[in-house]
Design a protein that fits this description.
Number of helices: 5
CATH class: Alpha Beta
Structural class: alpha+beta
Largest sheet: 7 strands, mixed
Radius of gyration: 16 Å
CATH superfamily: START domain
Mean pLDDT: 92
CATH architecture: 2-Layer Sandwich
Strand order of the largest sheet: 1-2-7-6-5-4-3
Distance between the termini: 39 Å
Protein backbone atom coordinates (compact mmCIF):
# COMPACT_ATOMS: atom_id res chain seq x y z
CA UNK A 1 0.00 0.00 0.00
CA UNK A 2 1.42 3.39 -1.03
CA UNK A 3 1.45 6.15 1.56
CA UNK A 4 -0.51 9.15 0.16
CA UNK A 5 2.02 11.98 0.27
CA UNK A 6 0.46 13.60 -2.84
CA UNK A 7 -3.12 14.25 -3.92
CA UNK A 8 -4.24 16.39 -6.83
CA UNK A 9 -0.79 17.85 -7.53
CA UNK A 10 1.77 17.53 -10.30
CA UNK A 11 5.47 16.92 -9.77
CA UNK A 12 6.08 20.48 -11.03
CA UNK A 13 3.77 21.86 -8.33
CA UNK A 14 5.56 19.82 -5.68
CA UNK A 15 8.87 21.38 -6.75
CA UNK A 16 7.60 24.94 -6.23
CA UNK A 17 9.03 27.00 -3.39
CA UNK A 18 6.38 27.10 -0.67
CA UNK A 19 6.49 29.70 2.12
CA UNK A 20 6.50 26.91 4.75
CA UNK A 21 9.93 25.88 3.46
CA UNK A 22 11.41 28.87 5.32
CA UNK A 23 10.03 27.51 8.61
CA UNK A 24 10.90 23.83 8.27
CA UNK A 25 14.03 21.74 7.82
CA UNK A 26 15.03 19.41 4.96
CA UNK A 27 14.44 16.49 7.35
CA UNK A 28 10.71 17.26 7.51
CA UNK A 29 8.36 15.01 5.56
CA UNK A 30 6.16 16.86 3.06
CA UNK A 31 2.57 16.14 2.04
CA UNK A 32 1.20 17.96 -1.00
CA UNK A 33 -2.47 18.53 -1.85
CA UNK A 34 -4.02 20.57 -4.65
CA UNK A 35 -7.23 21.49 -6.40
CA UNK A 36 -8.33 23.78 -9.24
CA UNK A 37 -10.68 26.56 -8.17
CA UNK A 38 -12.71 28.63 -10.64
CA UNK A 39 -12.33 31.87 -8.69
CA UNK A 40 -9.99 34.82 -8.39
CA UNK A 41 -7.07 34.79 -5.91
CA UNK A 42 -8.64 37.41 -3.62
CA UNK A 43 -11.82 35.38 -3.13
CA UNK A 44 -9.86 32.21 -2.40
CA UNK A 45 -7.59 34.10 0.01
CA UNK A 46 -10.60 35.47 1.90
CA UNK A 47 -11.96 31.93 2.29
CA UNK A 48 -8.58 30.71 3.58
CA UNK A 49 -8.75 33.44 6.22
CA UNK A 50 -11.99 31.82 7.43
CA UNK A 51 -9.74 29.17 8.99
CA UNK A 52 -9.68 31.58 11.92
CA UNK A 53 -13.33 30.58 12.53
CA UNK A 54 -13.36 26.86 11.68
CA UNK A 55 -11.31 24.04 10.08
CA UNK A 56 -13.65 23.51 7.07
CA UNK A 57 -13.08 19.77 6.78
CA UNK A 58 -15.35 17.28 8.55
CA UNK A 59 -17.22 19.46 11.03
CA UNK A 60 -18.60 16.50 12.99
CA UNK A 61 -15.02 15.50 13.75
CA UNK A 62 -12.84 18.58 13.96
CA UNK A 63 -15.35 21.37 14.69
CA UNK A 64 -17.19 19.67 17.55
CA UNK A 65 -20.28 19.16 15.38
CA UNK A 66 -20.73 22.83 14.50
CA UNK A 67 -21.00 23.72 10.81
CA UNK A 68 -18.16 25.81 9.43
CA UNK A 69 -19.48 29.22 8.31
CA UNK A 70 -20.87 29.13 4.78
CA UNK A 71 -20.60 32.90 4.29
CA UNK A 72 -17.54 35.10 4.56
CA UNK A 73 -17.27 36.66 8.01
CA UNK A 74 -16.19 40.32 7.68
CA UNK A 75 -12.84 41.11 9.28
CA UNK A 76 -11.41 37.58 9.32
CA UNK A 77 -9.22 38.50 6.38
CA UNK A 78 -7.36 41.00 8.58
CA UNK A 79 -4.48 38.64 9.29
CA UNK A 80 -1.58 39.10 11.69
CA UNK A 81 1.19 36.78 12.79
CA UNK A 82 0.26 34.88 15.93
CA UNK A 83 -3.48 34.73 15.23
CA UNK A 84 -5.12 31.39 15.91
CA UNK A 85 -6.35 29.24 13.01
CA UNK A 86 -8.12 25.89 13.15
CA UNK A 87 -7.84 25.97 16.96
CA UNK A 88 -4.40 24.30 17.12
CA UNK A 89 -2.49 26.40 14.56
CA UNK A 90 -1.28 29.98 14.41
CA UNK A 91 -0.51 32.29 11.49
CA UNK A 92 3.24 32.61 10.97
CA UNK A 93 3.30 34.21 7.51
CA UNK A 94 0.95 35.42 4.80
CA UNK A 95 0.89 37.47 1.63
CA UNK A 96 -2.41 38.72 0.31
CA UNK A 97 -3.73 37.19 -2.00
CA UNK A 98 -0.94 34.64 -2.48
CA UNK A 99 -0.61 32.45 0.61
CA UNK A 100 -1.37 31.76 4.23
CA UNK A 101 1.17 29.81 6.27
CA UNK A 102 0.40 28.35 9.69
CA UNK A 103 2.27 26.33 12.31
CA UNK A 104 0.85 23.99 14.89
CA UNK A 105 0.96 25.69 18.27
CA UNK A 106 3.64 24.22 20.54
CA UNK A 107 2.63 22.57 23.81
CA UNK A 108 -0.71 21.36 22.45
CA UNK A 109 -1.88 17.80 22.27
CA UNK A 110 -1.54 18.03 18.49
CA UNK A 111 2.12 18.97 18.77
CA UNK A 112 2.76 16.08 21.16
CA UNK A 113 0.98 13.60 18.88
CA UNK A 114 1.96 14.86 15.41
CA UNK A 115 5.19 16.77 16.01
CA UNK A 116 6.03 20.08 14.38
CA UNK A 117 3.59 20.79 11.54
CA UNK A 118 3.91 23.80 9.21
CA UNK A 119 1.36 24.25 6.41
CA UNK A 120 1.27 26.68 3.49
CA UNK A 121 -1.85 27.24 1.44
CA UNK A 122 -0.57 28.66 -1.83
CA UNK A 123 -2.78 30.28 -4.49
CA UNK A 124 -1.34 29.96 -8.01
CA UNK A 125 -3.29 31.85 -10.71
CA UNK A 126 -3.66 29.93 -13.99
CA UNK A 127 -6.00 32.21 -15.98
CA UNK A 128 -8.67 34.78 -15.19
CA UNK A 129 -10.80 33.32 -12.37
CA UNK A 130 -8.89 30.02 -12.49
CA UNK A 131 -6.37 29.20 -9.76
CA UNK A 132 -4.66 26.22 -8.28
CA UNK A 133 -5.03 26.04 -4.51
CA UNK A 134 -2.03 24.07 -3.30
CA UNK A 135 -1.22 22.98 0.22
CA UNK A 136 2.07 21.71 1.54
CA UNK A 137 2.33 20.32 5.03
CA UNK A 138 5.91 20.00 6.30
CA UNK A 139 6.06 17.66 9.29
CA UNK A 140 8.74 16.68 11.77
CA UNK A 141 7.31 13.66 13.53
CA UNK A 142 7.80 13.23 17.27
CA UNK A 143 10.27 10.74 18.72
CA UNK A 144 9.50 7.03 18.83
CA UNK A 145 7.20 5.27 19.49
CA UNK A 146 4.59 7.96 18.70
CA UNK A 147 6.64 9.06 15.67
CA UNK A 148 6.49 5.60 14.14
CA UNK A 149 2.73 5.56 14.44
CA UNK A 150 2.22 9.06 13.04
CA UNK A 151 4.51 8.32 10.08
CA UNK A 152 2.06 5.59 9.08
CA UNK A 153 -1.29 7.10 10.05
CA UNK A 154 -0.89 10.87 9.59
CA UNK A 155 -0.58 10.84 5.78
CA UNK A 156 -3.92 9.00 5.54
CA UNK A 157 -5.64 11.27 8.05
CA UNK A 158 -4.21 14.36 6.41
CA UNK A 159 -5.36 13.17 2.98
CA UNK A 160 -8.92 12.65 4.20
CA UNK A 161 -9.16 15.92 6.14
CA UNK A 162 -7.21 18.17 3.74
CA UNK A 163 -9.06 16.81 0.70
CA UNK A 164 -12.39 17.69 2.32
CA UNK A 165 -11.05 21.11 3.34
CA UNK A 166 -9.83 21.96 -0.18
CA UNK A 167 -13.06 20.73 -1.75
CA UNK A 168 -15.02 22.94 0.66
CA UNK A 169 -12.89 25.98 -0.19
CA UNK A 170 -13.35 25.24 -3.89
CA UNK A 171 -17.13 25.07 -3.53
CA UNK A 172 -17.40 28.14 -1.32
CA UNK A 173 -15.02 30.26 -3.44
CA UNK A 174 -16.79 29.32 -6.66
CA UNK A 175 -20.18 30.00 -5.10
CA UNK A 176 -18.95 33.45 -3.96
CA UNK A 177 -17.79 34.32 -7.48
CA UNK A 178 -20.49 32.68 -9.56
CA UNK A 179 -23.41 32.94 -7.14
CA UNK A 180 -24.31 29.31 -7.74
Amino acid sequence: MTIPFHWGVTSEECSLAFPCDRFSQPSYIAYFRGITVMADPETIFRWLCQLKAAPYSYDWLDNWGRQSPQRLIPGLDDLAAGQSMMFFFEVIDFERPRHVTVRQKPKTIGARVFGDVVVSYLIVPQAQNVCRLLAKAAIRHPAAPMGWLTRILLPWGDLIMMRRQLLNFKQLSEKSVHGA
